[in-house]
Amino acid sequence: MQKITSPAAFIGLNDTGIISFGSGQPDLPPPEAIFKHLETPRLFKYGLIKGDEELRSLLAKEYPGAEAEDFVITNGASEALDLVFRAIYQLHGKVGVLVCKPYYYSYPPIIELAGLKPVYTNLIEGKIDLKDFEKKLKSVKVVLINSPSNPTGRVEEMETLKAIEKLCAKHGVYIISDEVYKDLIYERENYLLKGAQVITINSFSKTYSMCGLRVGYLWSRDKKIVDTVVDIKVHTSMNTNVLGQEMARNAMHVPHSFIEKQRQIWQERRDRLYGGLIALGFDLWKPEGAFYVLPKIKNSNRVVSELFHKHQVIVYDGEWFGAPGRIRLSYALDVKLIDEGLKRIKKYIQGKESWLK
Amino acid sequence: MQKITSPAAFIGLNDTGIISFGSGQPDLPPPEAIFKHLETPRLFKYGLIKGDEELRSLLAKEYPGAEAEDFVITNGASEALDLVFRAIYQLHGKVGVLVCKPYYYSYPPIIELAGLKPVYTNLIEGKIDLKDFEKKLKSVKVVLINSPSNPTGRVEEMETLKAIEKLCAKHGVYIISDEVYKDLIYERENYLLKGAQVITINSFSKTYSMCGLRVGYLWSRDKKIVDTVVDIKVHTSMNTNVLGQEMARNAMHVPHSFIEKQRQIWQERRDRLYGGLIALGFDLWKPEGAFYVLPKIKNSNRVVSELFHKHQVIVYDGEWFGAPGRIRLSYALDVKLIDEGLKRIKKYIQGKESWLK
Fold it and tell me: Taking the model in full, what pTM does it have?
C-alpha cells in the first residue's frame, strides 16, 4: 500500500463512493447573489494591485478603525500570508516567526519559502500556553495566531488574546492573525486581535463557500507592511482576479442571516461528528470553531492509508499538522455522509481499541 | 509636478479624457464563448494545484511533445515566473539569471525576490548580441528570453534562438521563454524555444483579452521544475481561480480566426503609431510583435510627467525597463485614440526637436 505523505494526494480526487473528512472546503453552495453583473468588459482589464476599491471600502466597514487603503485583496488567504511573510523578509531579513503547534500544514513551508524561520510553541489541550509563548517571544519578530484554529478546532480565550496583544506591543513584535474561520464559532464570541502591529488575514472561501475562486485579503494599520506587500504583488501576481473580486463584492451585500444559517448547519455537523467519535471511544478536544476535529490515534499514517485504501474514507495525518499520533477530520460534509463515514471508521477500528488511548 | 517613478502610478486610473499609451492590456473584448457554463457549483471547490486537467490537455495539444502533466496553470504569467524562479532557488540556491536589456520591468525585482541574481546583456538595436550573450552565459544557471519582447516590440531571429538552444544545452543552463506575445507577430513566423531545459511561460491575457482574470501557465519537460513549482504553489496560492480556468478552457475552443482577426487590428494600430512617430521625427525600432514601441527621447522622466500632467497622455519611462533616454508606448488602443495621442505628443514636442536625437 502506497504511503500517503501529504494532503496533496487527495486534492481534486473524483470522489464517487469516497467519504472525505479530508479537505477543509465547505460543501454548501455560495450565495446566489454573487452571480450578478458578471459580463461587463471591465472585468477583463487589469485592476488595482490592492484590489477593487469598493470591495475594500465594504471590508473596511467590518473592522473598527480600518480604512479601504489598509487592505490588499489577494489570491486567497494563502497568497496574503505568502505576501506578508515576504514583505517582512524584505523589511527585517531572516527573523523568527512564532507558530502554535499543531499548526495549519502550510505555515512552516510558507514561512521558510519567504526566508524566515519558524519557532514553535506547543499548545496545551489545543490552547496557547502563555508562559511558553512569552519565553519564545524574545527570539521572534512575528507571531502567527489562528483562532479558530485549523486543525484543532479550538478558539483561544479572550484573556489569552488580550495578553498577546500587550506582550507583542511591548516587544515590538508583529501579530499575523489568520481569521479565516472567524464566522464559524459555536461556543461563544471570538475576539479579533487589534493594534498597530496586527496584520489580519481573511478570505471569502469559508464564510461564502467560495474556495475555488481564491479571493482573500490582508489588512493592517501598518502602512509599511501594506505598501511593501503591494510592491511585491505588482510583480508576482498583479491584481487578484477581477471576476472573483466582483463576486466577493456581491457576497458582502448578502444578509447576515446567510452566515447565521450556515453556522447552524456547521454546528449540527460538529455535534454529530464529535458525538460519534466520542461514542467510538476516541479521545479528542471539543471543537469550538472552524470545522475540524483532531482525535488521538496511534499509527496515524497507517490509519490514513488503510482508511483510504480499504474503506474509502479520507482523513488527514496529524503529523502533517505537527500533531503525530492524531488524525484530522473535517466535518465539511452532509450529516448523512458523516454517519456513513463514522460507520466505516467503527468497522476499521474494531480490534484496534488500544490505538485510541 | 510630482515625479512619476513607476507604472503603478497609472494602474487602475479612471481614464476619462486621458489617452493612455501606458499599460499593456488589450482594449478588445474577449470572445463571447468564454461565458458558457459558469454557474456549476464545481467552480467553487478547490481544484487541482496544477490546474484543470482538461485545460492542460488542450494546452498540451498546442505544443509538440507536451503532455498535460507538464503544465501548471497559474495566476497569470507573473505568478508562473515567480514560481519558476522560486523553484530554481529551491533547487540551485542563489544562481544568476541572464536578462536582456531593455527588459520587462518586473524581471529584475521578481528575480531578486526569489533570491536569484540578475545578470544583464545589452541588446543591439533591440536584438540579442550573441557574442555578449555567450560570454555572460558562463556566470548564470538560467536565461530569460522574451520574444516578441515587451518593451522593444522586437522578435528575435530564428538563428539566434536556435543558437541559444544549443548553447544552453551545452552549458546546462535553463531557458525560461516568456511567450505571452507569441500570437502577436506581424513580420514573420516566430520560433518557439524547445528542449529538455526549456520552461515556457504563457497566458490568456493578451491573446484572448483576459488580463483581469489572471490565467497563465508554465510548461516544461523538466519534471523536477514542474514538481517543485507545485510543491510551492500548494502553500503560496493553491489552485488558480477555477472560474478563470473555466473561461480559459472555453477560450481554447474559440476558432483560430478570432486570433487572426485581432492580429490584423493590432497590425493596423502598429502601423499607425509607428508611422506617426516616424513622421514626428522620433528615432525608434520597427516593432515586429507584441504591442509596444520604444522611441528615443531625452529627459524621459520629465517627458512622462509633463505628458501626463499637461496633456493627459500616459507613456512609460524607458528607465523602468532598463532603457533610459527612451519612452515606451503601448498601442493597445483604438486608432482614433492613437491619432489623438499623436496630436498631443506633436504639440508637446514642439521646440524640443533636439530631444529626439
Answer: 0.93
